[in-house]
Design goal:
There is one protein chain. The chain has 183 residues and is mainly α. The protein contains 8 helices and 2 strands; from the N terminus they run αααααββααα. A two-stranded antiparallel ribbon has the order 1-2. Helix 4 crosses helix 5. The longest helix is centred in the N-terminal third of the chain and has 23 residues. The two termini are 41 Å apart.
Length: 183
């Protein structure tokens, strides 16, 4: 067994999931399951994180413009500049570069023909979706294809339940009170 295999075996722990949380040691059981999940997540991240080189082909400023448009819908360059707290000339340059790459398009405002709106193209939306991916969909699909339909459903249901339980818990009280939310 290679060095990596020994390490992965060393961090694995058995967790009895059936009936978890039913007994008097519910808090201790929650900690035990949390530790097991954390270790399993480490292994999953190491196996399935994106390995496609540079994390993003977008600069931070370009990503901000694309993400902002994805949340707001079509805007004028001036509206974007105001929302992003940047000079209009700077945002205009970013929009011109992104439009040149086919990621944004300018179109007349149907409500006011004197205004020009900027919006994401299909390629821009696709690039933004790929940029947001943390894990490799290809690597995950290869592994998921070998799972039973029941295990597939349980995997997704379990992760969704974990996120929902955190949403129901309200604001975090741990040492890092700011939690990132997906965009």
């Amino acid at each position: 067994m290679g060095r990596c295999g020994r390490w992965l075996t060393a961090v694995q722990i058995d967790v009895r999931i059936d009936g978890a949380g039913d007994g008097p040691d519910e808090e201790q059981d929650a900690v035990h399951v949390a530790r097991a999940f954390e270790r399993a997540y480490q292994q999953a991240y190491l196996r399935f994180h994106r390995r496609d080189g540079k994390r993003s082909e977008l600069s931070g400023a370009s990503r901000a413009v694309l993400t902002h448009l994805a949340h707001t819908g079509p805007l004028t360059v001036g509206e974007m500049a105001q929302h992003l707290d940047r000079a209009q000339s700077v945002v205009s340059d970013i929009v011109t570069q992104l439009a040149g790459k086919g990621l944004l398009a300018r179109e007349r405002d149907p409500a006011n023909g004197r205004r020009t709106l900027v919006w994401l193209t299909d390629d821009g939306l696709a690039l933004l979706d790929r940029d947001r991916e943390v894990l490799s969909v290809d690597l995950l699909a290869r592994a998921v294809a070998r799972m039973t339909p029941q295990d597939r459903a349980a995997l997704v249901r379990g992760v969704r339940a974990l996120v929902a339980a955190d949403d129901d818990a309200g604001p975090s009280t741990d040492e890092n009170p700011t939690r990132r939310r997906p965009t």
